[in-house]
Fold this protein.
Amino acid sequence: MSKKEDIISTALRLFNSHSYNSVGVDRIISESNVAKMTFYKYFPSKEKLIQECLIQRNQNLQASLNIALSKGDPADHMGQLKTIFEWYAAWFNTEDFNGCMFQKALEEVIKIYPSTLEPATQYKIWLTALIQGLLENIGIQTPIHLATLIVSILDGMTIQAHVNKNSVEMNEYWKRVEHLINFEQTLA
């Protein structure tokens, strides 16, 4: 792993475990075991580091979700949607789950570092497009509205899981989403 990757990896771990505001550059430098000059060579500011971390987090999440989706039948679009919900439920139960880093960025640092808006929202844009495509394949006439609602449900589940992991009953959420999809199909 390169020095830059070490810094990003350390920062991701610290930002995820704590918050963007509570973790300073000096702590990241110390825990990355890099010189201050090395840090600033790659990241002239904390804002630039947060941007890079959010880009990396987005790539990591997309890769992980794509791996989960690749294990299922690509022609089973409802199954693919359910896999997304199962992936979220599995993520909530990981040892390092501390809520959504994108949501945290939008809450904590967007006013201080406005340039973090784009990388903080890229995952949601990607996820909405993914779900929209699956809904189109199911035959939903206006899939963008339902896709946006489903992403909002996933966001809500993430917040709820951050407060209490055990309170998210994925199967209950999925049943309601299935009901919404079935209802939309009757409108076609």
The CA atoms of residues 80 and 97 lie 23 Å apart.
